[in-house]
Specification:
mainly alpha, single chain, 12 helices
């Protein structure tokens, strides 16, 4: 089953790559909107500096004109239970995107206990008995969002740069057989400052990808646009991007 997801992922990477090339605004517009609610703070500028240092160390071009994102006082972080429920809902949609039978998905939703936590778009996809190939690709990429949540729940120590597609055995190690209650009992939500560090970093990774695509250059340092897009989506949901719901968070808006 994972072989299909990897195959879809390769196509999905091309789609994400193309979307970046065709985007007029890229991620800058969204973060600018996020910063419209408050002036950047000293802590936010310090976070920006740290992120830029990471990119420079990896040989990735840095756009110093990009603004800081919000700091811990300005974010609208999700609760531990919200993150657990979103993790399992996202995982179920990714498994369907990979091509699992409808009966299996229905059982998973009941076993996980997150049927009511599906977003409107997710519920429509789950109920569609014959989703398009494009939709399957789009949702199969959500394994990367699920992996970001695994990190946010302190189940792994490190969130590596967005280069390598997550392997199912790694996800399964932490999520297989879990329910909302068991995942709540075995995980701990990371401090908001840790999540903001990664949100700021993925913002700058994605901008570097966007610039490379728009200028017809090779992607820097092996960054993968599909992974970066899903990580951005997960991290900006985690920090409560302008209070947006899951379906509203669009990295290219």
């Amino acid at each position: 089953m994972r072989l299909l997801c990897i195959a879809l992922g390769l196509v999905g990477g091309v789609i994400a790559h193309t979307a970046l090339a065709e985007s007029d605004s890229g991620p800058v517009a969204e973060v600018s909107a996020l910063n419209a609610v408050a002036e950047p703070t000293e802590a936010a500028f310090a976070r920006k500096d740290r992120s830029e240092a990471v990119l420079l160390a990896e040989g990735i071009p840095v756009d110093v004109s990009l603004p800081p994102i919000v700091d811990a006082r300005q974010a609208l972080p999700r609760s531990h239970e919200e993150v657990v429920r979103r993790t399992l809902a996202v995982l179920a949609t990714a498994i369907k995107g990979e091509g699992a039978a409808q009966e299996k998905i229905e059982r998973l939703l009941d076993d996980f206990g997150v049927r009511s936590d599906l977003s409107d778009d997710e519920a429509a996809f789950i109920s569609n008995q014959s989703p398009s190939t494009l939709d399957r690709i789009r949702y199969a990429w959500r394994y990367e969002a699920a992996w970001t949540f695994v990190w946010a729940l302190s189940l792994v120590d490190t969130l590596e740069p967005p280069r390598e597609i997550v392997q199912m055995r790694k996800l399964g190690k932490h999520l297989q057989g879990k329910t909302v209650d068991t995942l709540l009992a075995t995980s701990e939500l990371r401090p908001i400052d840790d999540i903001l560090d990664q949100a700021d970093l993925i913002y700058r990774y994605r901008n570097a990808i966007t610039q490379a695509v728009q200028q017809d250059r090779d992607l820097p340092a092996g960054l993968d646009p599909g992974i970066a897009e899903e990580r951005y989506r997960a991290l900006y949901w985690l920090i409560g991007n302008l209070g947006q719901d899951w379906d509203e968070i669009d990295p290219d808006r």
